[in-house]
Amino acid sequence: MASDCVFCKIAAGEIPAEIVAESDQTVAFRDINPKAPVHVLVIPREHQPDIASLAAASPAVAAEVLEQTRVVARQESYEDYNIVFNTGAEAGQTVFHAHAHVLAGVDVSKLFLA
Ligand code: 5GP
Ligand code: ZN
């Protein structure tokens, strides 16, 4: 755990969050500033600064993060959803603990990929 990391503190239960799912290696909780009807963050319990670092250091944990995005979406009654991994400050990353944004109820791809 990184002592100054807000998401490590959420995973440790030291900062409150609305947790919606947990697995051995991950925790999922609602984003405090939701941008879609469903906006959940899936994080590894392991501290890594971004998804690329996580994939390199612990690929099985990165896979579990991906699997949990589906679990969360289905739990929220969505089959279709977007996953966003902001990676690096210039790409908008503000919390440097790897996290998947799970977004459902709006087609995010239309905003910036279409
Ligand atoms: P990033 O910009 O790094 O990809 O996304 C960080 C996300 O974490 C933002 O969408 C922000 O709203 C969310 N966030 C930041 N601090 C907290 C917090 O303390 N609790 C929760 N639930 N979400 C947070
Ligand atoms: Zn952390």
TrEMBL record:
Domain HIT: 6-112
Ranges spanned by the short sequence motif Histidine triad motif, renumbered to the chain: 97-101
InterPro entries named among the record's database cross-references: Histidine_triad_HIT, HIT-like, HIT-like_sf
Residues the record marks as active site: 99 (tele-amp-histidine intermediate)
GO molecular function: catalytic activity
Pfam family, one: HIT
PANTHER family: HISTIDINE TRIAD HIT PROTEIN
Protein name (database record): HIT domain-containing protein
Organism (species): Aeromicrobium phragmitis
